[in-house]
Amino acid sequence: MHEALDVPAWVPLAYLIAGICFIIALRGLSSPESSRRGNRYGMAGMAIAVGTTLGIHDIASLPEIIAAIAIGGVIGFVIARRIAMTAMPQLVAAFHSLVGMAAVLVAAAAFLNPQAFGIADAAGVIFPVSRIEMGLGIAIGAITFSGSVIAFLKLNGNMSGKPILVPARHLINLGTLAAILILIGLWTAAATPEPWMFWTVTVLAFAIGFLLIIPIGGADMPVVVSMLNSYSGWAAAAMGFTLGNSAMIITGALVGSSGAILSYIMCRAMNRSFISVISGGFGAVADAGGDAEKIDRPWKRGSAEDAAFLMGQAEQVIIVPGYGMAVAQAQHVLREMGDKLKEHGVRVKYAIHPVAGRMPGHMNVLLAEANVPYDEVFELEDINSEFSQSDVAFVIGANDVTNPAAKTDKSSPIYGMPVLDVEKAKTVLFVKRSMGGVGYAGVDNDVFYRDNTMMLLADAKKMVEEIVKSID
């Protein structure tokens, strides 16, 4: 059995309070209006958890711990100040990798010195229950680390966003996962566990994390980020059992379960099978789109003055932001454009696709940063029916989430994904840099060539600035 380290009676109560703060934080983060309050509760809970842990530490000296916290805090502060919102998805992936590696290092430390963690008998043999906890913790942590590294490289452009298909990948993945589970079982059941079993599990887990993510294409990357977030939570929870730390167990379980629920919701929103996404099932047809579908077709080009006139005369304009808006950092001037249109009596609404951008809620965060009123922002299922009654759909840097091929082309990598029906508006104004680029999924968009579409080719921020100047 696990020999819990002696702790003062107030410690479990403090950890419970921290856990309650985290639960309230998650509740607050479920709505834009309460997100700031939710963040404050999360910060308070983490402060209580860290302070409690520091108060009962008995492994390293307090100055060493404070020095480590200070170094990490400075690095985190500098990164947070410098990071662009467009790079937030890869930053999240990088942070997930750190959580995974932390779980691996804690498990390795517990394996090398189990008596210091209270998980071994007098002879130094680790208790079977603790072996299960450590085995699962290091496996999930290693998968999270290597998978998050691949996600970071794909999101950051260091690796192609297209699926990288390994021959017999499903057989390799299943075999590797089976080997990990079998080794954890053998290591747990052994009277005197062999070190090679533990380290082999670690190496195989690092490998499977790599193999699971490389076949997943860019269109499914938001789900991957959410899924890795869930993995990092379960890794932390497993290590909480090893450390006998209830705060880690509570926090890890909250992060793991909420991440899993979000991943499931996003898969439903994309008409994806969750099992197919996490096993690399999607992406096998990703090369069916892209260059093969990119042919010369007639299209109409408009100017900022044209766009300003059309929107100024409209009764309702629906703005559809995408990753191109994030790259150009055009959210503030976009809100200014919306404000000027409202001064002219135009109804302005913002349509958000669940996977617009590179991570869950990416567009919501950007619009909130620009102080766009929450009551003007609508999710896909709430606003899709309004496009047919709208005068103008103003699409700024959103490609895949407005592509009607998702509804008609079974060979498309985005087939089956619900999309915003912008083509049903009387006029579609589509802002993008050039006609040469395609979305992250690598497929061309038929909306570009529709009779009711006017292409506005320019940097998104500069184009919207010109439109604002042209609105009388």
Q: Layout of SSEs?
A:
Layout: H1 10-29, H2 35-55, H3 62-82, H4 88-112, H5 128-155, H6 169-189, H7 195-213, H8 221-243, H9 246-269, H10 274-278, H11 304-312, E1 316-321, H12 323-328, H13 331-343, E2 347-352, H14 362-369, E3 377-379, H15 380-383, E4 392-396, H16 405-408, E5 427-432, E6 453-457, H17 460-470
Parallel strand pairs: 1-2, 1-4, 2-3, 4-5, 5-6
Helix pairs in contact: 1-2, 1-9, 4-5, 4-8, 5-6, 5-7, 5-8, 6-7, 8-9, 11-17, 13-17
Kindly summarize this structure in a few lines:
Helix content is about 55%, strand content about 5%. It has about 475 residues and is an alpha/beta fold. Complex of an alpha and a beta chain; in Rhodospirillum, the alpha chain seems to be made of two subunits.
General description of the model:
The chain is of the alpha/beta class. 56% of the residues lie in helices and 7% in strands. The chain has 17 helices and six strands. The chain has helices at residues 10-29, 35-55, 62-82, 88-112, 128-155, 169-189, 195-213, 221-243, 246-269, 274-278, 304-312, 323-328, 331-343, 362-369, 380-383, 405-408, 460-470, and strands at residues 316-321, 347-352, 377-379, 392-396, 427-432, 453-457. A six-stranded parallel β-sheet has the order 3-2-1-4-5-6. The radius of gyration is 25 Å and the shape is elongated. Mean pLDDT is 84; it is low at 281-293.
